[in-house]
Design a protein that fits this description.
elongated; three-stranded mixed β-sheet; 4 helices; two-stranded parallel ribbon; alpha/beta
Length: 108
């Protein structure tokens, strides 16, 4: 079973959401809330903070994984999942044949 995950963003007026084990929250003063949540949870579960603010990252304690926003983004890579199949004739034809059929369909 997946571990609960919280994404906390700076801002207000947005609606908090719960998507399965994923919580998305918005806070007017996210830095203070990040510090409090990290302190409350770092002894019991894995905590990772992603922030562009070095001062915020520095106050989180040794038990918290800290990432600069740019470093965190650099670790992402495009998904490697194969293209989803539609289950129709388009999945069985090569690109050139599909292109010819599309031109015929458009009357070109």
């Amino acid at each position: 079973m997946a571990e609960p995950t919280l994404y906390l963003f700076d801002g207000e007026g947005k609606k908090d959401e719960q998507l399965g084990v994923l919580s998305v929250r918005w806070a007017k003063d996210a830095d203070a809330l990040l510090e409090r949540l990290a302190a409350e949870h770092r002894g019991q579960e894995q905590v990772a903070i992603v922030s562009s603010d070095a001062a915020v990252r520095a106050t989180m304690g040794l038990d918290v994984r800290k990432f600069a926003s740019q470093t965190f983004l650099a670790e992402f890579s495009p998904p490697t999942q194969p293209r989803a199949l539609r289950g129709d004739l388009r999945d069985k034809l090569d690109a050139e044949t599909l292109s010819k059929l599309e031109r015929l369909r458009r009357g070109q």
